[in-house]
Design a protein that fits this description.
Radius of gyration: 30 Å
CATH superfamily of the largest domain: Bira Bifunctional Protein, Domain 2
Strand content: 15-25%
Strand order of the largest sheet: 6-9-10-22-21-20-17-11
CATH topology of the largest domain: BirA Bifunctional Protein, domain 2
Structural class: alpha+beta
Number of helices: 13
Oligomer: single chain
Distance between the termini: 45 Å
CATH architecture of the largest domain: 2-Layer Sandwich
Length: 600
């Protein structure tokens, strides 16, 4: 274990078996008799009878000089009583918060033994994640996990305090809920009392929090547990936590102000500094410049429109509705294998092809482009590309031509692949993305597809185009992005029945279906729903970025693997035929010789 979690300022007063925490002792304690409790981090023999014991608790390490400690091993749980003294000159450990002192004349009381752990906690080994997750209770003792989860608690407390300061009331909403129309697959819970009927675990408290607005609570918040049965990845788990808020009689600007205040408070609690002012851009601007609605603003490499430079081109590959490029500074040094890999990656994410061009200086000193395709371009076209991209000698230009959104998406992904710094590097760059499309397309039956959810209010200026040009309608929705991660999203909600009916009709939701799926919400709206809007911040993602982690599993105490399993407990597991019977579920049919499978 390297370093220490020095918490002198906020550690609670010791009680019970100890007088002090390991990581809080310093030169001001020299001469005191203390008792500390914890786990043996390491033992070092010194002569025949003397040993140095590094004792660890959640605050850090303290070195203890022990006589006759041969029975102690790593992870033994002990209580050590002794006198704090200065370390002998020349033996101080500047990398340790308590490195100027040690506990001498130590008496050891073994509180519990321990088998040799399956991996070391000294921070110098690369333990396979599956081993760490199988023994998560040991992994949680590590310096990193202790730091990450304490940072998470600090962020949660700061967010909660910020919302309370802004007049929000904490209200809990149900975990056993009814199916909601939010897109992701839901976890179903069979009812023991009503066989054949199911609760679902909420994807979010969306409808419940809207009902608190109808109930007149004005400003609601909750550190909400949410569950979605979707494919797992680095920034996604079945179970996640979000700061969920809703407020009445507000505008979009008000909601974004509430959220900005909360994330500033949380960032300050971690860094001691408030973040820079949150920049704002429309969805279309984000797509056009960065190829993504969650742009990472820590680096440049923006998408560049080449339509003017190639307006009259005779090169067939560039005769497309949209031609864009990105410039990679110094990329001309990429070898052929690297370039082929970029082309393969572009095809993997949907490109028909990708053109690369190196900037070179001709013998006469003129800057030009070098590529297998440059012979098909005129000198003016090559010059136009150089001018548009602002390329200099040694740069690499990557070009994709196709439909607008496809071009932006492909180059946006390549931009991230080739330019994104690690999450722990660079500044923290927050960004609001606003004015999302109300609808993201049309389904096979000709019905519009909601880009957010069917209760999002269309932009007031676009209401007159709901029937004539619905795909151009903007929603009053907004996302908060941090370093290329979507931290959360929100919207102003529909509170007028005429607009809600118009949106349902566009989505192909009949009156009967609307009543069946959302009747309790629509019924509530008949009794005076105030204008309202809200937002939700993904706590796991926020904490991961603040902790400098690329995977949210590193800031969750007991996460699932990418396959959705809990290696520590073995979940999910089959349940007994008796339990299935109580729930009104038939056990799965098993063919002769086959073994039953979990779940049925």
């Amino acid at each position: 274990m390297s370093g220490s979690l020095r918490v002198r300022s906020d550690a609670p007063a010791p009680v019970g078996l100890r007088t002090d925490y390991c990581g809080t002792l310093g030169v001001e304690d020299i001469g005191r008799t203390v008792s500390v409790c914890g786990w043996v981090a390491r033992r070092r023999e010194h002569g025949e009878h003397l040993a140095f014991i590094d004792l660890r608790d959640h605050t850090g390490l303290i070195q203890c000089v022990v006589d006759g400690a041969h029975t102690l091993r790593a992870e033994f749980v002990v209580r050590i009583t002794g006198v704090v003294r200065a370390r002998p000159e020349g033996t101080e450990n500047e990398s340790l918060e308590t490195g100027a002192v040690e506990i001498g004349d130590s008496v050891v009381e073994i509180l519990n033994g321990a088998e040799p752990p399956p991996f070391l906690l000294d921070g110098h080994t690369d333990t396979d994640e599956s081993v760490r997750l199988r023994h998560r209770y040991i992994d949680l003792r590590s310096h990193k996990m202790q730091a990450n989860l304490r940072l998470r608690a600090k962020v949660s407390a700061a967010l909660r305090h910020s919302m309370e300061e802004q007049g929000f009331l904490e209200i809990e909403t149900p975990l056993l809920w009814t199916p909601t129309p939010e897109g992701a697959r839901e976890f179903a819970v069979p009812s023991r009392l009503q066989h054949g009927s199911f609760y679902v675990l909420p994807q979010s408290p969306q409808i419940a929090k809207q009902l608190t607005m109808v109930g007149g609570f004005d400003r609601y918040f909750q550190m909400a547990r949410c569950l979605r049965d979707e494919d797992l990845r680095a920034d996604r788990q079945f179970e996640f936590t979000q700061l969920d808020i809703e407020a009445s009689f507000v505008t979009e600007v008000d909601i974004r102000s509430f959220v900005a205040h909360a994330v500033a408070d949380a960032t300050y609690a971690v860094d001691g500094e408030a973040p820079d002012e949150i920049v704002e851009m429309t969805w279309h601007e984000a797509i056009d410049r960065y190829g993504s609605d969650k742009p990472d603003l820590r680096f440049a490499m923006e998408l560049i429109d080449l339509s003017k430079a190639l307006a009259a081109t005779q090169f067939n590959a560039f005769k497309a509705p949209c031609v864009k490029a990105i410039r990679i500074q110094g990329g001309a040094e990429f070898g052929r294998a690297k370039l082929d890999g970029i082309i393969d990656r572009a095809k993997e994410i949907g490109a028909k092809g990708l053109v690369w061009m190196r900037t070179v200086t001709l013998p006469e000193g003129v800057l030009d482009l070098e590529s297998p395709i440059t012979k098909f371009l005129t000198e003016d076209e090559r010059t136009g590309i150089i001018q548009a991209t602002k390329a200099v000698r040694g740069d690499l230009v990557l070009v994709v031509a196709d439909e607008y959104l496809k071009v932006c998406s492909i180059l946006g992904q390549l931009r991230v692949d080739l330019g994104r710094p690690p999450v722990h590097e660079g500044p923290r760059r927050f960004c609001w993305v606003i004015d999302f499309p109300m609808f993201e397309g049309v389904d096979d039956e000709g019905h519009l597809i909601a880009a957010h959810h069917p209760f999002t209010m269309p932009h007031a200026d676009d209401l007159d185009r709901m029937e004539t040009d619905p795909l151009s309608v903007r929603a009053q929705s907004y996302d908060l992005v941090l370093n290329g991660w979507e931290l959360g999203s929100g919207s102003i909600r529909i509170h007028r029945s005429d607009i809600q009916a118009q949106v349902f009709q566009a989505l192909g939701i009949s009156d009967e279906e609307a009543e069946s799926r959302f009747g309790f919400l629509l019924g509530a709206f008949k009794y005076g729903a105030p204008p309202h809007g809200g937002f939700a911040i993904g706590l796991d993602r926020f904490v991961a970025i603040l902790a400098g982690e690329e995977n949210i599993r590193e800031v969750i105490a007991f996460p699932k693997t990418q396959s959705g399993t809990d290696l520590m407990t073995g979940a999910p597991r089959p349940i007994s035929a008796r339990q299935m019977g109580e729930l009104g579920i038939r056990p799965p049919l098993v063919s002769k010789g086959a073994r039953p499978t979990a779940g049925g």
